[in-house]
């Protein structure tokens, strides 16, 4: 049942609109008619009241006076004085109609003109006043702004002045500070010199005093200054004290130098040891470096010995220019060469730690180091490339930028493909839902996700669109015709009613009812036939539901109760057109229909088995649906 | 760890003989010599006045006792208790007295640094060295006892005289490029003499034994300079502690700065371990177990206990802001000591009086920080092993070793406030000096590791 309701709710939403439009069109004249009397009624009292007002001015008695007065007025207004005059003196209050009317007309015209001009003036004045107001407002605002900016500028000026003042004071301060600093510095310097001078003076004094004290002490021959020893001790080393001679002095010197020398020797030895250790480490490092850099085993380098210096020289000149990404064979060659030099320099260092050897050693180490560095860099870059390639699933190594561009491109492509697929899916669904493609389409759909297919589908979609537009146009024509026919039908119905009344009066009620029922079956042809079709066929459920839709659609499209009759009368229900229209329409609602179809069918079947009058209910429902 | 009974002493005069056999202590005007192992009194000498200074001769045969007020020096012999020697400096006065390295001469510095009198015990001869400079460390003997460096001041200029101690022959005499020389110190191998200027100028001069200037080092100018200086036992490093709270290490080859040890208030060096001494009062009632622990540890019951805790970094070290306007402000590295194996350097910054810093000289980085509850009075390295003993003027002894840190209550009757400490030359025992008492602490090998946290 639900699909019925859904269709019923979806379809009318489109159709009702149209219907309402039609209704509005049809209704508008009637409304006009209806409005007219009200207008009349509203104007009538107005005229009456005006008449009453006029009567206050002009009565049966004072018509001539009025006329004369009006004449005067008219004259003053610039109309000819003879425009209004009594038609006949006998008939009091009678007017010469034509001039009077003319006068009135003129007056009215004038009145209207003046009214219009007044209105215009008023609007003009309004406009001008509003403009004036606006201008005043803007003026005041601008004044405010001016005031504000003036104030601002004055404030800024003030601030600037203050800042200037500040700068001046600060500059003065700085100057004074500088002076102060200089003064202080000079004071410090003078103090320092004074202090040092004083200190020196004091020191001299103190030394003088000390000297004097010393002298005094020496002169006095302090008795107390004494050593009181029981017996003299032997020297700690057991030797006797030696006489102070030049020889002794020389011995002291010699001993001193000996101790110094021994110290230096010790230090030298320690340094040598350290050096040897470092050399060992260096050698080991070199060996390891070489083994890392050139993994291929090398033959003994005895034959190369003679060329080592040249090699190393060549290397030293070449190595800075060496390209990091050079071929592996060249690298190898270089590595071999440097290895030779290394070996040699090591030998040299071992044999005769001379200047030359050291230079060579450091040179070779430097080269090796450079090589190692470049190698490491290469490895680094390789590692990063490997990572990239891993990301790209073993593709060729490409620069990063290109890679990214490629990525972007591919992303775009993917997006496009997705769009394609989506549209294809949509189209295919539509096609699948349309009855014109049945098994073929289904078969096609299974493997038609191709571009050509899509293009073709698009083309078809376009065609369908065109067709739909045609149908829409047709439908519009229909509705117009329906409007026309509606009137005719009304007349016809009235005729029929009168005719039926006559028949009813003449014939038996049985005959009449029979006829009526026949007309009704004809009227609800589509729905009444459905239950019959449904009852035997459970496997053909899907097609049935489709047929329901097919049936329901045109009804829903028409929407009005009269259209069925109209179609019937016009013979305008061609099978092909309805189906094609359905196909064009169905895209919007068929999905829900198909989704619910199974459940609905189950419900339906239950209803079917549960109660015998479900069919009638259903038909009723369909009737209602068609009516809405 | 065992402790001896408490003995009396005065003026913190207590020295172990260089051969490690005897312990000499002064009690007022008496000199007591004991056997280190048995602590029995071997000799008792009576001086003429209260002893102010006492020193063993290098051969451990004689003891010098100086009474500066009286200008008197008395020498006692262990071998011949009847032997005596009395040196009277007379009216000129005495400020300092010391043995020469050979143990047969006594060098007395007179009042006003008028002269240095060299008394020979062998010949009764007396010789004078004039113009000694009154400074932080004016005299230094080389480690082997061959040479003496003496700072002199003549005509407002600094000089250094190098004497051969054997016969007091003046070997070298040279002027130094200092404004106001503050001290001289021989390298342990006796080949390099470090001379440094007073605190007004950061300047270290390094002279060879023959008087050649090897190098000059100055870290900065216009600020208070060097406060302390220490040679590593291998003569490989020269550590210079200065008023900028830094220690600079010079190497012995180029005499350039190897590294610089800062003493920051906030320690966030992840390689350093910060040991913080935490005091806890024994709570009666709830802490029976802990009290029992204390008993087992051999501590007295009613003293505050303390232990070390390892603080998570960063650690804020208590800093006392010094009064910079006064002379000798309490800031800067005042004491430094290398361990006997050259591996560690212990330093103390005066503005962080409670903290001792231990630096690893192999890594040239901070190794440990010991934050005490009170100001560190004294720290000294074990002469044999890499362990540091320190005291903070309370009844506890603190020991640090690379394995850890321990605080030990000194179980002395009446309580000994450890003001200073001295290692026995074997490194097996420690002499703890209180104000009036002394106490020996015997460390057993391996025990230290047991008590390490």
TrEMBL record, chain A:
Coiled coil spans: 132-219
PANTHER family given in the database record: AFADIN- AND ALPHA-ACTININ-BINDING PROTEIN (PTHR46507), SSX FAMILY MEMBER 2 INTERACTING PROTEIN (PTHR46507:SF4)
Source superkingdom: Eukaryota
Protein name: Synovial sarcoma, X breakpoint 2 interacting protein a
Cellular compartments per GO CC: adherens junction; centriolar satellite; ciliary basal body
GO biological process: cell adhesion; intraciliary transport involved in cilium assembly
Keyword set includes Cytoplasm: yes
Polar residues composition bias: residue spans: 519-530
From TrEMBL, chain B:
UniProt-listed Pfam families: WD40 (PF00400)
Residues annotated as signal peptide: none
SUPFAM superfamilies per UniProt: Tricorn protease domain 2
Gene Ontology biological-process annotations: lens development in camera-type eye; retina layer formation
GO terms under cellular component: microtubule organizing center; MWP complex
The protein's name in its UniProt record: WD repeat containing, antisense to TP73
């Amino acid at each position: 049942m639900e699909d019925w309701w859904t269709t019923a709710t979806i379809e009318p939403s489109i159709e009702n609109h149209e219907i309402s439009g039609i209704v509005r069109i049809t209704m508008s004249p009637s409304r006009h008619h209806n409005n007219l009397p009200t207008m009349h009624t509203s104007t009538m009292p107005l005229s009456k009241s005006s008449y009453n007002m006029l009567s206050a001015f002009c009565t049966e008695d004072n018509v001539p006076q009025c006329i004369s007065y009006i004449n005067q007025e008219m004259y003053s207004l610039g109309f000819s004085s003879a425009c209004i005059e009594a038609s006949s003196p006998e008939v009091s209050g009678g007017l010469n109609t034509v001039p009077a009317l003319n006068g009135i007309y003129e007056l009215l015209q004038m009145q209207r003109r003046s009214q219009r001009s007044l209105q215009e003036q008023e609007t003009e004045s309004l406009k001008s006043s509003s403009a004036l107001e606006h201008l005043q407002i803007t003026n005041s605002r601008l004044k405010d702004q001016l005031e504000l900016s003036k104030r601002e500028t004055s404030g800024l000026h003030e601030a600037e002045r203050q800042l200037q003042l500040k700068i001046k004071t600060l500059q003065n301060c700085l100057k004074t500070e500088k002076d102060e600093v200089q003064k202080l510095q000079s004071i410090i310097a003078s103090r320092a010199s004074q202090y040092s001078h004083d200190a020196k003076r004091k020191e001299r004094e103190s030394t003088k005093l000390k000297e004097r004290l010393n002298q005094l002490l020496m002169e006095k021959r302090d008795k107390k200054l004494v050593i009181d020893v029981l017996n003299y001790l032997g020297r700690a080393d057991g030797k006797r004290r030696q006489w102070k001679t030049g020889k002794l002095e020389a011995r002291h010197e010699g001993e001193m130098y000996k101790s110094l020398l021994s110290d230096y020797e010790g230090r030298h030895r320690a340094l040598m040891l350290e050096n040897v250790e470092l050399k060992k480490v260096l050698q080991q490092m070199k060996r390891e470096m070489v083994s890392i850099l050139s993994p291929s085993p090398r033959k003994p380098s005895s034959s190369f010995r003679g060329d080592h210096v040249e090699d190393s020289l060549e290397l030293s000149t070449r190595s800075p220019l060496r390209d990091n990404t050079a071929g592996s064979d060249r690298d190898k060659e270089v590595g071999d060469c440097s290895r030779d030099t290394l070996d040699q320099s090591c030998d040299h260092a071992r044999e005769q730690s001379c200047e030359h050897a050291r230079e060579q050693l450091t040179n070779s180490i430097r080269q090796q180091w450079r090589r190692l560095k470049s190698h490491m860099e290469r490895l680094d870059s390789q590692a990063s490339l490997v990572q990239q390639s891993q990301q790209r699933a073993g593709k060729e190594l490409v620069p990063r930028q290109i890679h990214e561009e490629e990525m972007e491109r591919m992303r775009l492509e993917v997006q496009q493909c997705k769009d394609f697929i989506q549209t294809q899916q949509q189209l295919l669904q539509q096609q699948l839902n349309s009855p014109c493609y049945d098994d073929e389409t289904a078969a096609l759909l299974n493997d038609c996700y191709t571009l050509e297919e899509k293009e073709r589908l698009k083309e078809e979609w376009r065609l369908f669109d065109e067709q739909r537009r045609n149908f829409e146009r047709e439908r519009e024509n229909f509705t117009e015709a329906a409007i026309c026919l509606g009137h005719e039908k009304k007349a016809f119905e009235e005729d029929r009613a009168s005719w039926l009344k006559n028949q009813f009066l003449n014939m038996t009620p049985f005959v009449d009812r029979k006829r009526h029922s026949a007309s009704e079956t004809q009227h609800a042809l589509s729905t009444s036939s459905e239950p019959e079709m449904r009852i035997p066929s459970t496997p053909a459920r899907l097609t049935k539901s489709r047929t329901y839709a097919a049936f329901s659609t045109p009804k829903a499209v028409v929407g009005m109760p009269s259209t069925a009759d109209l179609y019937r009368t016009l013979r305008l229900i061609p099978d092909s057109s309805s189906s094609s229209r359905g196909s064009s329409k169905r895209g919007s609602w068929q999905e829900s229909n198909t989704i619910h179809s199974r459940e609905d069918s189950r419900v339906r079947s239950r209803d079917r088995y549960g109660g015998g009058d479900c069919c009638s209910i259903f038909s009723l429902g369909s009737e209602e649906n068609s009516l809405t | 760890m065992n402790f001896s009974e408490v003995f009396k002493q005065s003026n913190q005069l207590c020295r172990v003989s260089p051969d490690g056999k005897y312990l000499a202590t002064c009690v007022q005007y008496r000199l007591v010599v004991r056997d280190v192992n048995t602590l029995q009194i071997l000799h008792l000498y009576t001086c003429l006045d209260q002893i102010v200074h006492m020193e063993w001769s290098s051969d451990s045969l004689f003891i010098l006792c100086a009474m500066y007020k009286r200008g008197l020096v008395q020498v006692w012999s262990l071998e011949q208790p009847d032997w005596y020697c009395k040196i009277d400096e007379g009216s000129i006065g005495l400020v300092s007295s010391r043995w020469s390295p050979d143990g047969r001469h006594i060098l007395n510095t007179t009042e006003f640094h008028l002269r240095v009198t060299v008394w020979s015990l062998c010949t009764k001869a007396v010789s004078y060295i004039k113009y000694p400079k009154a400074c932080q460390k004016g005299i230094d003997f080389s480690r082997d006892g061959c040479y003496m460096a003496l700072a002199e001041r003549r005509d407002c200029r600094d000089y250094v005289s190098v004497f051969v101690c054997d016969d007091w022959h003046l070997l070298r005499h040279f002027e130094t490029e200092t404004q106001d020389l503050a001290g001289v110190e021989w390298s342990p191998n006796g080949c390099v003499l470090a001379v440094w200027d007073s605190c007004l100028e950061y300047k270290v001069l390094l002279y060879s034994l023959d008087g050649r200037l090897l190098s000059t080092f100055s870290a900065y100018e216009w600020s208070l300079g060097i406060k302390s200086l220490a040679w590593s036992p291998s003569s490989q490093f020269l550590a210079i502690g200065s008023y900028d709270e830094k220690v600079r290490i010079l190497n012995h080859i180029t005499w350039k700065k190897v590294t610089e040890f800062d003493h920051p208030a906030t320690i966030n060096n992840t390689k350093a371990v910060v040991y913080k001494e935490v005091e806890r009062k024994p709570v009666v009632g709830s802490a029976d177990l802990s009290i029992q622990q204390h008993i087992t540890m051999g501590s007295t019951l009613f003293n505050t206990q303390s232990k070390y805790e390892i603080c998570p970094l960063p650690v804020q070290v208590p800093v006392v802001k010094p009064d910079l306007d006064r002379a000798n402000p309490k800031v800067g590295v005042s004491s430094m000591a290398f361990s006997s194996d050259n591996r560690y350097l212990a330093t103390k910054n005066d503005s962080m009086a409670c903290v001792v810093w231990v630096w690893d000289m192999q890594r040239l980085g901070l190794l440990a920080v010991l934050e005490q509850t009170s100001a560190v009075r004294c720290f000294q390295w074990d002469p044999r092993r890499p362990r540091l003993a320190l005291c903070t003027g309370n009844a506890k002894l603190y020991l640090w070793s690379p394995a850890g840190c321990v605080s030990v209550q000194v179980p002395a009757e009446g309580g000994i406030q450890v003001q200073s400490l001295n290692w026995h030359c074997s490194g097996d025992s420690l002499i703890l000096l209180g104000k009036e008492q002394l106490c020996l602490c015997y460390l057993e090998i391996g025990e230290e590791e047991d008590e390490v946290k």
